[in-house]
């Protein structure tokens, strides 16, 4: 079965065509999560006992795939359907990072071959490697939908629709300005629109001046700005930027990857400088392009190699802790691990 776009899924759901199994994945996690909720909402009618017929299972918990599929086999109680949501699904490049394990393949294949017609199972995937057999099994036997990041046109349309739904107004130029500042994260864009709509009362008009006064520029609060403060030991400033980035909807694992990339690039630049390589060679090897180039190179020159190596090792441990749910699973546990990491890096 071919992978659908979110537009194709929307058309199916508008016709109230509900499939027994969905697999929702992709970089745009806000729209993915909204789709999972919308499918679940569509499965229940007013007066049905939803609380008894809707369950969620995180694959961060060992063997929860068996529990989830067992729940899907149960008949609904005083409702037309049962909804089983399976979250934290990861089929990675490396099997070590999987939460959907290969030893569950047979039980999964058995269910997908004959899914319960009185249940709707929704797999919410954080990562699906297209070359893995488990991924192919899932996507071939379900309605699989990829949620790609919106382009500028899609972001402006989303902003326009959300502003209208919030009872506010903004012209095209203002909406374009908001998208340019807020960036391509739909979760953050939605949060900023809700904030602006409240501030626009009673006139309901969102203006460029209002945006400039309330919406921090995502390009100014850069991930390298966070790294710069960490390396410099500015703990309170690093924490402030971290909280802003996370509150704007950045996924903890994605942010961790960016922090790791920045430290690795700094290490590459530092080693090349120590060997006497030219500035142009350092720039090319560390990909130090753009307006922050001078700040990056200056930071690389004055930072000790041992400090960068120690930071990269600590980042790797945080990555493992998040993926193995040390200290708690889900967004709360991941955020805690990132906050602990930032505090420790600032003290190196």
Write structural notes for this entry:
With 348 residues, the protein is an alpha/beta fold. It contains 16 helices and 5 strands. Strands 2-3-4-1-5 form a 5-stranded parallel sheet, sandwiched between helices. Strand 2, helix 3 (64-73) and strand 3 (82-91) form a beta-alpha-beta unit. Helix 6 (152-165) packs across helix 7. The longest helix is centred in the last third of the chain and has 23 residues, at 252-274. The N and C termini lie far apart (51 Å).
Helix-strand layout with pairing:
Layout: H1 6-14, E1 21-25, H2 29-42, E2 54-58, H3 64-73, E3 82-91, H4 105-113, E4 119-128, H5 133-140, E5 143-146, H6 152-165, H7 172-182, H8 186-199, H9 208-214, H10 223-232, H11 235-247, H12 252-274, H13 279-286, H14 293-302, H15 305-323, H16 330-346
Parallel strand pairs: 1-4, 1-5, 2-3, 3-4
Tell me the CATH topology of the largest domain.
Rossmann fold
Series of secondary-structure elements, N-terminal to C-terminal: HEHEHEHEHEHHHHHHHHHHH
Q: What oligomeric arrangement do these chains adopt?
A: single chain
Mean pLDDT: 87
End-to-end distance, in Å?
A: 51 Å
- Estimate the global geometry from the Cα principal axes: globular
Helical run tally: 16
Radius of gyration computed on alpha carbons:
23 Å
Looking at this structure, what is the CATH superfamily of the largest domain? P-loop containing nucleotide triphosphate hydrolases
Name the CATH architecture of the largest domain: 3-Layer(aba) Sandwich
Helix content: 55-70%
């Amino acid at each position: 079965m071919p992978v659908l776009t979110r537009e194709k899924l929307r058309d199916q759901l508008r016709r109230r065509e509900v499939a027994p199994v969905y697999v929702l994945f992709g970089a745009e996690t806000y729209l993915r999560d909204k789709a999972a909720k919308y499918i679940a909402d569509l499965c229940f009618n007013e007066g049905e006992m939803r609380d008894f017929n809707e369950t969620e299972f995180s694959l961060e918990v060992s063997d929860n795939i068996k529990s989830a599929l067992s729940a899907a086999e149960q008949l609904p109680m005083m409702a037309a359907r049962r909804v089983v949501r399976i979250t934290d699904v990861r089929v990675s490049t490396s099997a070590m990072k999987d939460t959907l394990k290969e030893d569950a393949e047979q039980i999964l294949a058995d269910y997908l071959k004959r899914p319960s017609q009185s249940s709707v199972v929704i797999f919410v995937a954080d990562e699906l490697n297209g070359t893995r057999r488990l991924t192919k099994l899932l996507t071939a036997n379900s309605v699989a939908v990829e949620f790609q990041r919106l382009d500028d046109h899609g972001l402006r349309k989303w902003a326009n629709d959300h502003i209208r739904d919030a009872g506010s107004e903004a012209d095209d130029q203002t909406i374009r300005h908001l998208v340019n500042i807020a960036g391509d994260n739909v979760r953050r864009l939605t949060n900023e629109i809700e904030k602006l709509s409240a501030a626009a009362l009673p006139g309901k008009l969102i203006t460029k001046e209002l945006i400039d006064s309330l919406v921090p520029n995502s390009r100014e609060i850069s991930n390298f700005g966070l790294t710069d403060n960490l390396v410099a030991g500015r703990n309170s400033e690093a924490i402030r930027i971290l909280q802003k980035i996370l509150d704007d909807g950045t996924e903890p694992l994605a942010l961790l990857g960016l922090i790791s990339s920045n430290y690795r690039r700094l290490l590459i630049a530092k080693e090349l400088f120590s060997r006497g390589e030219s500035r142009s060679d350092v720039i090319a090897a560390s990909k130090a392009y753009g307006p922050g180039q001078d700040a990056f190179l200056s930071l690389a020159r004055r930072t000790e190699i041992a400090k960068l190596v120690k930071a990269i090792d600590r980042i790797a441990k945080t990555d493992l802790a998040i993926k193995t749910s040390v200290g708690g699973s889900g967004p709360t546990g991941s955020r805690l691990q990132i906050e602990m990491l930032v505090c420790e890096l600032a003290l190196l």
